[in-house]
């Protein structure tokens, strides 16, 4: 038996992919609000104001006009996310220096949250794979995939449209396949299970 890797629909990945546009819109709105507050606190608009304004409009344009671009070209999505991290981190530090502690904490917290999102999104593959090896199973997850030895797998129920896995630590994983399995693929999974999973 050779190792086998099959694409699955991972609920957490799908939620993060769907919420990506809303997170960008939130960041754009916060940047725009900061630009407007800066505009009213200064006697005349500065280069800083115009940079903020341009950045917020760029994010809005990218999200509203090119929703699929962010999914199809993950590097552009990561680039925008990196700009958001730098913005929130920079504003947070600036607020601290100017003595606005709570405003600084909020912006730095946003920078940390967007950094975590950047880390998770960097892990995205075009497809999330569930892999069966001779030593165990690799299950896709956020922020990292999980590897379970066969001795830690209590039960696997595989079907043409999905799979359910239960570990010895009472962790349950249920995934739908990206596309229904061929008979040979299902048979190979069942061979792994009958050979490695102890009978209950």
Polypeptide structure, described:
With 200 residues, the protein is α+β, with helices and mostly antiparallel strands. It is 58% helix and 18% strand. It has six helices and seven strands, in the order βαααααββββββα. It has a seven-stranded antiparallel beta sheet with strand order 4-3-2-1-7-6-5. A hairpin with a 6-residue loop joins strand 3 and strand 4. Helix 4 packs antiparallel against helix 5. It is elongated and about 70 Å long.
Draw up the topology in text.
Layout: E1 4-9, H1 11-41, H2 47-65, H3 67-72, H4 74-97, H5 101-122, E2 128-132, E3 136-139, E4 146-149, E5 153-158, E6 162-167, E7 172-177, H6 183-196
Antiparallel strand pairs: 1-2, 1-7, 2-3, 3-4, 5-6, 6-7
Helix pairs in contact: 1-2, 1-4, 4-5
DSSP helix fraction: 55-70%
Order of helices and strands: EHHHHHEEEEEEH
Strand order of the largest sheet: 4-3-2-1-7-6-5
Separation of the first and last Cα atoms: 23 Å
Mean of residue pLDDT values: 80
Shape: elongated
Individual helix count = 6
Q: Profile the largest sheet.
A: 7 strands, antiparallel
How many strands appear in the DSSP assignment? 7
Rounded radius of gyration (Å): 23 Å
Classify the oligomer. Answer: single chain
Strand content: 15-25%
Structural class computed from helices and strand pairing: alpha+beta
Low-confidence stretches: none
